[in-house]
Design a protein that fits this description.
- It holds the Pfam family TrmB.
- By secondary structure, the chain is of the alpha+beta class.
- A hairpin with a 4-residue loop joins strand 7 and strand 8.
- The longest helix is centred in the middle third of the chain and has 22 residues.
- The strands form two sheets. It has a seven-stranded mixed sheet with strand order 3-9-8-7-4-5-6, with helices on both faces. It has a two-stranded antiparallel ribbon with strand order 1-2.
- It has ten helices and nine strands.
- It is rod-shaped.
- The N and C termini lie far apart (81 Å).
- The chain has two domains: 88 residues, Arc Repressor Mutant, subunit A; 137 residues, Endonuclease, Chain A (2-Layer Sandwich), CATH 3.30.870.10.
C-alpha cells in the first residue's frame, strides 16, 4: 500500500502525463484493488458513479484499463503500468509536431544581448572564454588599432591563448595599420592560422574590433581596459562584410 506522500507523488505524475484528477484516482484505485467492479471503485475513490464510469471509459480508450464480463457484470483491471511510457511518448510526439507548426507560422525576433567587461583580469578571462565558446575551425576577423595593446594586455597568457587557438583550429585574419607592421611581424611573424594585412591610413586609436561568428566585440585599451560584446547575428554579418571590403584594400 502507498502512504499519503507516495500516493500524492504518483497522482502528480499521472496528472503530468495528461490525466485529469478523476482519471488518476480511478487508475490508482485499480492498481491497488486489482480486478473489481465499478461499485468498489466508487467506494474506494469516493467519486460519484458518473465520474467513475466516464473515467473508466477514457482510461480504456487510452489503453490503460481493460474489462471482462463475469456473470453479466463488468470487471475492470489496470493494465501493466509500463503502458504509461507510451503516454509520455505520445505527448512528446504531439509537442514536437506543435513546435514544428508554430515555427512555420511565427517570426521570432533576432536574439541579442550585450556584455561588458572591465579590467585586465576580466578581459583576459573573457578572451579565453570566447575561444572556448567558438566552434572549432571557425574564423575570427580583427580590425586592429595602433601599437600592440592586445599583446601587452594578454601578457604572459598570450602564449597559452595562441596555443589554444591553434588546438581548436580557429583561423584569425587581422587588419592593422602600417605603424603596426614591425611589431606584428616580430610577435606573429610565423604564427599558425594567423594572417595579417596592413591598411595605409587605418587609424582606430586604442580600439580593436573582433568579429566572431556569433558576436561583435570592441576592445578599448585605455585604463582600465574595457570590452564590449554584442551578440547579434545580423550586426555580426554586417561587420564581416565591412571587414572583407577592407581586406581587399589592405596590403600584405
Amino acid at each position: 500500500m502507498f502512504d499519503k506522500n507516495q500516493k500524492d507523488e504518483v497522482l502528480d505524475g499521472l496528472l503530468s502525463l495528461g490525466m485529469d484528477l478523476k482519471e488518476a484516482r480511478v487508475y490508482m484505485s485499480l492498481l491497488l484493488l486489482g480486478e473489481v467492479g465499478s461499485s468498489k471503485i466508487i467506494k474506494d475513490t469516493d467519486l460519484h458513479g458518473q465520474y467513475v464510469y466516464q473515467s473508466l471509459d477514457k482510461l480504456e480508450r487510452r489503453g490503460l484499463v481493460q474489462h471482462v464480463i463475469k456473470r453479466g457484470r463488468k470487471k475492470f483491471t489496470a493494465k501493466n503500468p509500463n503502458m504509461l511510457s507510451r503516454l509520455a511518448e505520445e505527448k512528446k510526439i504531439l509537442a514536437e509536431n506543435l513546435v514544428t507548426k508554430l515555427n512555420e507560422i511565427i517570426v521570432l525576433p533576432l536574439e541579442q544581448h550585450f556584455e561588458v567587461f572591465q579590467g585586465k583580469e576580466s578581459y583576459v578571462a573573457h578572451e579565453f572564454d570566447m575561444l572556448e565558446y567558438a566552434k572549432e575551425k571557425c574564423e575570427v576577423l580583427i580590425i586592429g588599432g595602433t601599437g600592440d595593446k592586445f599583446n601587452e594586455t594578454m601578457g604572459v597568457r598570450l602564449k597559452d591563448y595562441t596555443k589554444r587557438q591553434i588546438e581548436r583550429g580557429i583561423k584569425m585574419r587581422y587588419i592593422g595599420s602600417e605603424g603596426q607592421r614591425e611589431a606584428m611581424e616580430s610577435v606573429h611573424g610565423k604564427r599558425e592560422l594567423f594572417e595579417v594585412r596592413y591598411l595605409p591610413g587605418l587609424f582606430t586609436a586604442e580600439v580593436n574590433t573582433n568579429i566572431w561568428p556569433d558576436a561583435l566585440a570592441f576592445n578599448i585599451f585605455s585604463e582600465p581596459v574595457t570590452h564590449f560584446t554584442i551578440w547579434n547575428p545580423l550586426v555580426t554579418k554586417s561587420y564581416a562584410g565591412f571587414f572583407e571590403t577592407l581586406w581587399t584594400l589592405a596590403k600584405q
